[in-house]
Write a structure and sequence with these properties.
TIM Barrel; binds manganese (II) ion; binds phosphoenolpyruvate; single chain; alpha/beta; elongated; 10 helices; 4-stranded antiparallel sheet; 8-stranded parallel beta barrel
Length: about 325
């Protein structure tokens, strides 16, 4: 950490800052320039987390040298994390596709969709049983019934299951039924929930919040990792901007930025990013080209009558076409699919 002192700093103020730093067991290196005096802090700067150095008299600015996220950073672990879900390797050379309906609606729709997405090449089945809806009057999901249907779909197809957890009280229930726990965009900063899934023994797919910076996104992943669970998949799903022509704006640059900052696998959800099925294909292709480790795509056998997100859901035939195109592109960017 580097502490820049004010031009008119007094020796007494410098001594006070130094005393604070030494008080937590760190040492200092003071550099007196013509214009400014700078204090370099030597040692683990996390020891200073609870001391508001910025407000000490004589201090102009404080610049941390280390990233605020540690366990999830590339500095901490150079090689990429690979997560094995029932033999599906996430984060390796193979790009994995998660597909399925926005929410589990009924047995027939789910099973038919599951069979179709498997046929097209999806490796994991998605389906919400607890839905985070903007309106309390919209379909909220089938709850435990939905989880039972997901389990049945897994028995039929062999596809591992991902579903969203919204309430810490449902953690054990979800863990009994699903292979990956999803934390939705709206709960990315629900820190109690993050700590809860940090203590479980299941991979977690963490979606980026609607208005979260990449740093905040990584800090949320750090919450999970700090409790012991290191199997975290990050998912960019579009952020709020001033642009109304798509539901959200897909932050495609988040992928290379995240790949540099963290060893965790990075997915893209083009469906929630754009909100229109026609735009899912180009964004999915872009995601593969830019280095995403996987995709999450909403597929429905009858989007017109879907209870949730029909407008952005692909019909199985369109999903099949997209998978073929992704397969053609993958070798050009050094990936398998
Ligand atoms: C979802 O994937 O079901 C979902 C609700 O997405 P998000 O949290 O990204 O809005
Ligand atoms: Mn949805």
């Amino acid at each position: 950490m580097i502490i820049v002192l004010k031009k008119d700093v007094t020796q007494e103020q410098i001594d006070h800052v130094v005393e604070k730093i030494r008080g937590v067991g760190l040492s200092v290196h003071i550099s007196r320039g013509k214009e400014r005096t700078i204090i370099g802090v030597i040692g683990d700067e996390s020891a200073l987390a609870s001391i508001p150095l910025e407000v000490l008299p004589g201090v102009e600015s404080v610049m941390p040298v280390l990233k605020p996220y540690k366990l999830v950073s590339r500095e901490f672990k150079e090689e990429g994390t690979v997560i094995d879900v029932d033999g599906v390797r996430i984060g390796g050379r193979e790009v994995q596709v998660i597909a399925g309906p926005c929410s589990v609606e009924n047995r027939e729709t789910l099973l038919k969709t599951a069979v179709e997405v498997k046929k097209a090449g999806a490796r994991i089945l998605r389906g919400g049983a607890f839905k985070p809806r903007t309106s309390p009057y919209d379909f909220q999901g089938l709850g435990i019934e939905g989880l039972k249907l997901l389990k049945e779909a897994k028995r039929e197809t062999g596809l591992p299951i991902i579903s969203e957890l919204m309430d810490p009280r449902d953690t054990d229930l979800l863990c009994d039924y699903v292979d990956i726990i999803q934390i939705g965009a709206r709960n990315m900063q629900n820190f109690r929930l993050l700590k809860e899934v940090g203590r479980i023994n299941k991979p977690v797919l963490l979606k980026r919040g609607l208005a979260a910076t990449i740093k905040e996104f990584l800090m949320s992943a750090e919450y999970i990792a700090s409790q012991g669970n290191k199997d975290i998949i990050l998912c960019e799903r579009g952020i709020r901007t001033f642009e109304p022509s798509t539901r959200n704006t897909l932050d495609i640059s988040a992928v290379p930025v995240l790949k540099e900052e963290t060893h965790l696998p990075v997915f893209i959800d083009p469906s929630h990013a754009v909100g229109k099925w026609k735009l899912v294909r180009p964004l999915a292709m872009a995601a593969l080209a830019v280095g995403a480790d996987g995709l999450m795509i909403e597929v429905h056998i009858d989007p017109e009558n879907a209870l949730c997100d029909g407008a952005q859901s692909l019909m199985p035939d369109k999903f099949g076409e997209l998978m073929r195109e992704l397969r053609a592109l993958a070798p050009a960017v050094g990936r398998d699919i």
